[in-house]
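dumping the sequnces here before i forget
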Amino acid sequence: QPKPIELAIAADPTGPVIDRHIFGQFAEHLGTGIYGGVWVGRDSPIPNVRGIRTDVVTALRALKVPNVRWPGGCFADEYHWRDGIGPADRRRIQINGNWGGVPEPNAFGTHEFMDFAEQIGAEAFISVNIGSGTAAEAAQWLEYMTAEQDTTLARERAANGRAAPWKVPILGLGNENWGCGGSMSAGHYVEEMKRFASFIRNFHPAQRETGRMKRIAVGWDSDRLDYTEEVMKAWQSRVYSWDIEGVSLHKYTTGGWPPRLPATGFGHDEYAIALTDALTMETLLARQSAIMDRYDPGKKLAIAVDEWGVWLAPNPGSNPGFLQQQNSLRDGIVAALNLNIFARHADRVKIANVAQMINVLQAMILTDGGRMVLTPTYHVFRMYVPFQDAQLMPVRFAAGRYGEGAHALPRIDAMAARDKSGQVWLAVVNIDPEAGTSLTVPGYRTAAGEVLTAPRVDSINSFAMPAAVAPRPLRAGGSGPTLTLVVPARSVAVVKLSP
Ligand code: AHR
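..and the predicted 3d for all of it:
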């Protein structure tokens, strides 16, 4: 049994607020992420409200999803919003060229997305089409969604069933425009982005002021630095006509490209490869922050990690363009590690979106017809709800290491924060797949919360066994001034601490 680890939590929460938007989600028109996962249609035998499946909405409400990014991803740069409004039987059927080459019926358009966001209580993060669209098209979409005045587009929105304007608090200015978004050089993207940022206006009465809608320019992918540098340079020397509030970063945990790590049936070596890759998020954020600090030392602009998650070999027999993969305890652990890293960078990271919400990549939920299963990643997001908008409390601990050579990893990771009611919460990830860990926490006497673990790192929830990986209660405490908390091997624990 490894030696106990002392974990010291700073007495006062001197850290930044962990923006609830780091717990955002991403729902792209890809595979069965939207069609089947969210949208079943009004006439479906699967219980639904206006075509949106009820079981999924109920499950997502428990996550207090702060924002959903839509319609892509790569799909955003080939999306034309007019194809997705008006009578369903007159909507354009197109081919989804990025994802599987299947027909895209446009049955789920702006009204259906906004309805979904409202049903789950989330805000809209809309990505506009810079790659194959025009600034005028994007500007008109924003007017259609947000204008309250009596304009032709507001009337059209009302005729399509929505009189009141919607809010659009987050706007993506393109997506991966170095690649699927038009293969643009960084310099070319910046010129396009400035034009779009100049002409797209939010007319919602609560969001008309500059800065009330967060505009996110495209920044880094895992190994491309030039976009962030060029965007920041342009921002520093901007004139009055345009502005942005954030720069994106995309990082998938793949363990190599193309993705080939298995989603199931793997051992401790492949587990270590995935976790080693996941932990590089820390370095990427530090590097992107360092670039941004040179142009923006006052940290006005945010980093939006608006795509992150594990990207594995597709499920055998599935359409490889659908990016369908199972979700194991390992993936829940990866989620917790990423969330801890975002929290530690809360001074810069204000938005993050796990890819993706349902049936695609690191999903919260898997569906099959009328059946639904909650993944280990879902449980981690649910357990982390208390950290939304809590204030980070610096934590000191010597994590130690387990394993050898390239596969040596820290034994634990931890993060603490104080919520608005004054309650202190601690998240501990025991990365070690074989050994439990005992933690001593001075200044606290009791802990109560939940822990997520399972017999193996590749344990999953299936339709046959939907609760194989499920949180269970975790309690510790006594009368002494130092709490001893025992966390099992390969686990994520979130507990409320009391002095
Ligand atoms: O999430 C899947 C895809 O990954 C997105 O569409 C794209 O932006 C990224 O490359």
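The radius of gyration is 22 Å.
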